[in-house]
Amino acid sequence: MKTKTIIDIEPVIDASIFDRLQRLDKERLSESIRDVSILEAVNVVKSFGSNKVIPDLNFKIHDIQGKSEVICMLGPSGCGKSTILNLIAGLIQPTSGTLLYQGKQIDGPGIERGMIFQKYSSFPFLNVLDNIAYPLIKIKKIKKKEAYEQAYYWIEKLYLKGAEYKYPKQLSGGMQQRVAIARTLCSKAKIILMDEPFGALDRKIRWEMQDLMAELLFFNPGEEVTVFIVTHDIPEAVFLGDRIWTIHKGGIFSSDTIERPIADSRSTHMQHQFNELVSFFNEKIFNLELKAKS
Questions:
Q1: What percent of the chain is helix, strand and coil (3-state, nearest 5)?
Q2: Are residues 89 and 115 in contact, defined by beta-carbon separation less than 8 angstroms?
Q3: Dihedral sign for Cα atoms in the order 290, 82, 71, 251
Q4: Largest CB tally within 10 Å, which of 116, 123, 210, 244?
């Protein structure tokens, strides 16, 4: 009788990853932070009918002086990532508990929190220039000439020069997302919320958008912002995240500090150390999915 061969497919995670993550956490604690946190959740609960999606959410984002910060949220489908994002945006209200922006309660949407969706959100009847300048003119009541000057700055910064008088339907998916990002940054939003922002783009354009975000936030920052990204793409989270929140059953299961990119997205994705880290988070989420089914 033949003995059945058992193939061990469990990934072997390099133990040095744990040491590296601990070291980065310690380095983060030594950085200079502001007196008032930029965002805080205190005992936040969110229910939809009898379904308690967020049972008890608590966190505090200590605004680091002179530095943008990117928090990527990973986790199994249905774990509450988008609900957390919508709560921060003020699009939905907590059932109980409090969300605070710079110490003040969030009770609805605000221009200091900009939302960027997977589905392009530009006004179809406005050209690129008017789309970007819109919040300055209509919400902040800035004069059109000054608003256009600020909009042109972001048009150049996001490589949209030459397309300023085109309409959304004339733009590629990547360009439409750049318009949405430019509009949010132009409005001086301090918190940028991104829900699967590059999910509809092909891999090459996705790499290009990741490189653009790295340039805006890390290499050549134009504004100091806090960014939340919900994504199912683990390599994207590892590339862009300062911190990765692994979400499980509506709570933060773990929070890991990640190294910032030092090279472009495509070449980084090919590095062994990078892929070891991707495997680490992939395995963590896989185990959470198993736990959710048990």
A1: 40, 20, 40
A2: yes
A3: negative
A4: 244
Q: Tokens at residue 285, please?
A: 């989420």
Note the pLDDT tens digit of each residue in 150-160: 999 999 988 89
**Alpha carbons 292 and 284: distance in angstroms, whole number:** 12
- Per-residue pLDDT, 7: 47
**β strands within the chain, DSSP E:** 39-48, 51-61, 69-74, 96-101, 104-105, 113-116, 191-195, 226-230, 243-248, 251-257
Look at residue 11 and give its three-state secondary structure. coil
Distances, alpha carbon 277 to alpha carbons 10, 16, 67, 128, 259, in Å: 15, 10, 24, 38, 10
DSSP state of 3: P
Q: Is the dihedral of CA 41, 43, 46, 52 positive or negative?
A: positive
- The residue ranking higher by pLDDT, 11 or 26, is 26
List CB contacts of 183: < 8 A, sequence separation 6 or more. Answer: 114, 122, 131, 132, 134, 135, 154
